[in-house]
Amino acid sequence: MGGFFAARKYMESYLKKNPPINESMLKVMMLQMGQKPSEKKLHQMMSAMKAQGKKK
Questions:
Q1: What is the Cα–Cα distance from 7 to 42, expressed in whole angstroms?
Q2: How far is CA 4 from CA 11, 14, 28, 46, in A?
Q3: What is the C-alpha to C-alpha distance for residues 47 and 24, in angstroms, rounded to an integer?
Q4: Where are the domains of the chain?
């Protein structure tokens, strides 16, 4: 029972430090960098990030 709460606390702190990125966050980041986010570019970046995450 205690292990469950410890794991839950760990995951909460991990997600605060490393939040999962979704397409809306990616769109905002691209706008801040001065790029115009198209749907094709968003999908390409999301798939590239998912592929990078699987390599770790």
A1: 33
A2: 11, 15, 35, 32
A3: 14
A4: 23-56
d(CA 23, CA 5): 31
Model confidence over 2-51: pLDDT tens digits?
788 888 888 888 877 777 778 888 888 888 888 888 888 888 888 887 78
> How many whole angstroms from its chain centre is CA 42?
13
- What tens digit of pLDDT does each residue of 26-38 get? 888 888 888 888 8
Question: Distance between CA atoms of 23 and 46, rounded to whole angstroms?
Answer: 7
Spatial separation of the C-alpha atoms in residues 43 and 45, rounded to whole Å: 5
